[in-house]
Amino acid sequence: MSSPLPPPDRRRGALDALTAEIVGCRACPRLVAWREEVARTKRAAFRDEQYWGRPIPGFGDPAARVAIVGLAPAAHGGNRTGRIFTGDRSGDWLFAALHRTGFANQPTSVARDDGLSLREAYVAAAVRCAPPANRPTVGERDTCLPYLDRELALLADVAVVVALGGFAWDACARLLGLSPRPRFGHGAEVAAGDRTLLGCFHPSQQNTFTGRLTEPMLDAVLLRARSLAGLPALPPR
After folding, report:
1. Can you tell me the distance from the alpha carbon of 226 to that of 66, in angstroms, rounded to the nearest whole number?
2. Which fold has domain 8-228?
3. How far lies 137's CA from each of 30, 98, 177, 203, in Å?
4. How confident is the model over 181-218, as pLDDT tens digits?
5. Phi/psi of residue 132, each to 5°?
6. The whole model's pTM is what?
């Protein structure tokens, strides 16, 4: 019989140890070369900043009831700031929505030390290094997935996994043991034992600029996650 997981205040230590392992990973040569090249050459707007240039761990509440999983860090977002979805347009949408739906203490995320904290939520990615053209390979995904698997194992209170986009959906479905693989869709729900996989269009510029994903649509998924996770409803505005 496996040992019971430690309470949330002690899980933080286990998550910190996993974070250190993730940050030191050099398993995928193509991703290592790309993330480090981007960190050296930089974008002109950030030329005076020190880029992170390493894999990106997840972050959030060790007692989270909801886990939000994206594709991979952005080259000049998480790869620059060192925190997933921080410092890019997708993150602007995601954290504003997390604030509106009661999961975040503030609506913006620009740096690792900007005061953002999450309540009942944890944010991670299927792949931890920024990939060229935002397209990791299947092999890179499979090499990286054990990190997410271990995070979700430590996050024992997670009842809902929100997958942002089809890539994250397929990755999460694999980890949750769903076979045959359920079809991705915005708002799709699939039971996976004592957890639920919930689909959401990724808040990429391609989706938000074209109106494929709107703020009400994103909020609705996160509010549904709150309900499925048994969290209190938000008071009327």
Report:
1. 7
2. Uracil-DNA Glycosylase, subunit E (3.40.470)
3. 10, 29, 21, 21
4. 999 999 999 999 999 999 999 999 999 999 999 999 99
5. -55, 135
6. 0.94
